Amino acid sequence: MADVKAVVFPACAALCALAFLYKLRDVRHRRDDPALLALLVAFSCKGVSFTLSTPLVARKVDVALGVDDLGALGIHLFGGVASSAAFLTAIVYWVYPREEAQRRALVRLLAAAAVAVVMIGLWVAAKHGGQQRSAHYLVQNAHRPVVAAYLLLYVSAFGSGMIEIIRLCLRYGRVAGRQWLRRGLHTTAVGAGACLVYCLNRLLALITSQCGLDPLEWELLTPVANGVGIFFLVAGLTMPSWGPRVSDGRRMARNFITYQRLHPLWHALSTAVPGIALDPQPAGRLARLLPGDINFRLYRRVIEIQDGLLALRPYMDSDIIAAARRSADEAGLSGDALQAQAQAVSLAAALRAKRDHRQQPGEEPAPLGPDATRGGGYADEVAWLLKVAQAYTVLPSTETSTETSAETTERTTR
Q: Where does the DUF6545 domain lie (predicted)?
């Protein structure tokens, strides 16, 4: 068991330190934010608690200060009473108006201070018994009335704080306006639930010790519950800060993939109609892989493809479009897939017609596009062009080879 705690608890302390340093960066801009200050206190208290929970550190602290089990008192005060009050204070400021949050936070902080004073008194009273140092202070001394009262008070304070955190997170997580705040509150509730399992385990130790059973047989639950709890608490309480960056990164990655998938379609159109390109100079492979502002580049690519399709409308043959639709229908396609296939085939034919300077006589054919019964904006247009690009890319080489030949001929002439 000591080996497990020697690994899990230092890792938990390091996680708390990282969370503390991460939120510390915001102090410069948000000095008057009570929720931020409460989080810093909570993470630091939890970090101290997990450091003291490491068996080697606990022994060295007791030896250095000459007081047995002083480390255990620090664990319970910092990791249970103080940290739960600080976590709860931060959440209260998130979900209540400032004035009401101040009142609620003050009540909880005063209650935590009162519990801490009583716990210190009970701990001092327990030390008068002359007991030797205990590697598992609560479990090994739960049969003693004073320690039992100490344990019960500690579990009640810590557990009630976790229950209140769960209640607030679940209640306000359902109505939180910001997506990442909502996710953070739900994640925090999971972490508080894991800590509540630890509290119940300690309460079970109090009961079983009175029945002559050995609670150390399931002491593995302590590092497991604490490790899971602090992971989700840290993730949930910092999520409103780093979550939007994750969304931005995911959106940039999605836009980059879309940008690359649209390249064959854009390349065919910009070769036939060079005027649609904002930058008429041909971009190399490196420039394609490192486009810079990907959001702007994708927007420009969509506009240029639309301009290219518009410029090719005089070269689109209605008969070819109708034949392409029939062929796609016979292949089992329907809806946007059928429309995209027809658009790709007619586009390839239009590119050949433009190369040969063969405009279609009469009225231009109606432009193809997604189902007109659906309203849509930029996102729908991008989705539609992706379907067209995919259909165009997989066309038989005989349908697109003339375009390549034309480009090669043009380069040779130059």
A: 254-393
Residues 6+ away with beta carbon under 8 Å from 171: 95
pTM attached to this predicted model: 0.77
Could you give the angle at which helices 263-272 and 221-261 cross, rounded to 10 degrees? 20
Angle at the Cα of 347 (from 352 to 385), degrees rounded to 5?
150
pLDDT in tens, 71-103: 889 999 999 999 999 999 999 998 899 999 999
Residue 352's φ and ψ, nearest 5 degrees, are: -65, -40
Domains in the chain (CATH in brackets) are 2-243 (1.20.1070), 262-413 (no CATH)
Q: Kindly report the number of other CB atoms within 10 A of residue 342's CB atom.
A: 24
CA angle 26, 28, 31 (to 5 degrees): 85
Whole-number pLDDT of residue 155: 92
Asked if residue 53 lies in contact with residue 10, where contact means CB atoms within 8 angstroms, the answer is: no
pLDDT band at 39 (very low <50, low <70, confident <90, very high): very high
Structure tokens at 249: 């990164």
Question: Are residues 13 and 54 in contact, defined by beta-carbon separation less than 8 angstroms?
Answer: yes
The whole-number pLDDT of residue 205 equals 81
Nearest to 392 by CA among 237, 255, 241, 272: 272
Q: What is the pLDDT of residue 160?
A: 93
The SS3 call for residue 141 is: helix
Q: Where are the alpha helices (DSSP H) in 128-275?
A: 137-141, 145-173, 179-210, 221-261, 263-272
Report which of 273, 274, 276, 301 is spatially closest to residue 287, judged by C-alpha positions. 301
- Both tokens assigned to 74: 């620090």
For 34-132, strand residue ranges (E) read none
Cβ contacts of 274-279, under 8 Å, gap ≥ 24: 275/311, 276/304, 276/305, 276/307, 276/308, 276/311, 277/304, 278/304
**In sequence order, what are the residues at sequence separation of 6 or more whose Cβ sits closer than 8 angstroms to the Cβ of residue 160?**
none
Instruction: Work out the percent of the chain whose per-residue pLDDT is above 90.
Output: 44
Among the listed residues 176, 177, 202, 164, the one whose alpha carbon sits nearest the alpha carbon of residue 84: 164
**What would the pLDDT profile of 356-413 be if each residue is shown by its tens digit?**
888 777 656 655 655 444 456 888 889 989 999 999 988 886 566 544 444 433 333 3
Count the neighbouring beta carbons within 10 Å of the beta carbon of residue 141. Answer: 20
